[in-house]
Amino acid sequence: MASITIIGTGAMANAIGGVLAGGGHDVAHIAKGEVGTAPVTGDIVVLAVPYPALDGIASAYAEQLAGKVVVDITNPLNFETFDSLVVPAGSSAAAELQAKLPASHVLKAFNTTFAATLGAKRVGDLPTTVLVAGDDAAAKQALISAVTSSGLAAIDAGSLERAHELEAIGFLQLTLAVGEQLPWTGGLAVAR
């Protein structure tokens, strides 16, 4: 059983927390108003917040996040125009976060799924697939084990450099959903 702290209480935070708790894992939430005052107790910490909130969380919790698995689920896109990512070309929100939290094991995951497909654990007839990128093999395995034991599929997507591509996939899915070309109940599932 994994011990997981989720920072955030929105749709994605609740979907991730519900799935993981349903898989028998110990899940605690920290709400936006509690950031910086509530302690981080989990070994895996999921940052289920908008991209602009990452800096404040990194500053508030840098010491507590040292040695922990930190999961960035953000899609750093321009939500006013929906026409571009807002991180430097070739970089990613996860890479920026890793630079701010050098003592943590930052992973990119959950950004290519929608809350509805996480909660349903299905995309059509297939299990919802969570892609996980990061540089620490043990950290990736800890998250993948928690995800798969909770009824979802998971794939190791490679090093943290792959977060750039995962954020591009998330960007594409979001723009398609906003443009009503993809339902919010659609998304990524991989047949094996």
Automatic annotation (TrEMBL):
Question: Does the keyword field hold Oxidoreductase?
Answer: yes
User: Ranges for the Pyrroline-5-carboxylate reductase catalytic N-terminal domain?
Assistant: 41-76
Q: Which UniProt keywords apply?
A: Oxidoreductase
Instruction: Note the InterPro entries from the entry.
Output: NAD(P)-bd_dom_sf, P5C_Rdtase_cat_N, STEAP_metalloreductase
Coiled-coil ranges (or none): none
Task: Kindly give the Pfam families that the UniProt entry links to this protein.
Answer: F420_oxidored
Q: Where are the transmembrane segments?
A: none
The UniProt entry, under PANTHER family, shows: DUDULIN-RELATED, REDUCTASE
Q: What is this protein called?
A: NADPH-dependent F420 reductase
Look up and give the organism this protein is from. Answer: Promicromonospora kroppenstedtii
